[in-house]
């Protein structure tokens, strides 16, 4: 599996943040890609242009504390990027940061950080010698299942695609997944859209773009694989 120059830079940033001791763990596509690489997955996967993370601390951080902590982490890691807050976190809303080149101001990628959400199970990952803390595989599966069990599935086609990748390398343990959902305070919906509105789901999938010239697997293959993979939790 090839990494883009942007993805390598993002992993370098994730390592710098991890090394700094900021109470941040990562989630989303960058963690999934690291896990797939560790599991020996060799096919190309969809690329991403942002970092997703959780910040968990005893007291809610201010905008200044978050920005300054991230900037110091990058400087200590020898990374010449400027951190700019463009959206403050709030109820149901993550904090949004742009990371830009210092000289030109060009934004290279963004970072979304949820603050003091329920704590997820985590583990240490490594990509090309770059270590960071990310949500555990079973937590990823649980989060994606919760999303596609609702009618949000049509806006969350990427979660269906990710479960397709995951199905190639990871055994589905129903008991572990259900316990992880319970620990996160989440429940599964009915999967009505996923099971009974397949034409709408196919349409959403066809509109979903795979960046970087990555081949998009046929919808029927993706759908059939995911449905078989998660059959233990389907109604």
Folded structure, characterized:
The chain is an alpha+beta fold and 235 residues long. The chain is 42% helix and 19% strand. The protein contains 9 helices and 7 strands. The protein has helices at residues 5-20, 29-38, 63-76, 137-148, 157-167, 174-183, 192-196, 198-207, 219-229, and strands spanning 24-27, 50-55, 81-87, 95-101, 107-115, 122-127, 130-135. Strands 1-2-5-4-3 form a 5-stranded mixed beta sheet. A hairpin with a 2-residue loop joins strand 6 and strand 7. Helix 4 (137-148) packs across helix 5 (157-167) and helix 5 (157-167) crosses helix 9. The longest helix has 16 residues, at 5-20. It is globular. The chain starts with a helix and ends in a 6-residue tail after the last helix. The model has no long low-confidence stretch (mean pLDDT 94).
Summarize the structure.
With 235 residues, the chain is an alpha+beta fold. It is 42% helix and 19% strand.
Termini Cα gap:
35 Å
Tell me, rounded to a whole number, the average pLDDT: 94
Rg, alpha carbons: 18 Å
The helix count comes to 9
Strand order of the largest sheet: 1-2-5-4-3
Which structural class do you get from the secondary structure elements? alpha+beta
| Biggest sheet descriptor | 5 strands, mixed
Annotation, overall tally of beta strands: 7
Helical proportion, percent range:
40-55%
Provide the low-confidence segments as ranges: none
Beta-strand content bin: 15-25%
Oligomer: single chain
Helix-strand pattern? HEHEHEEEEEHHHHHH
Bulk shape = globular
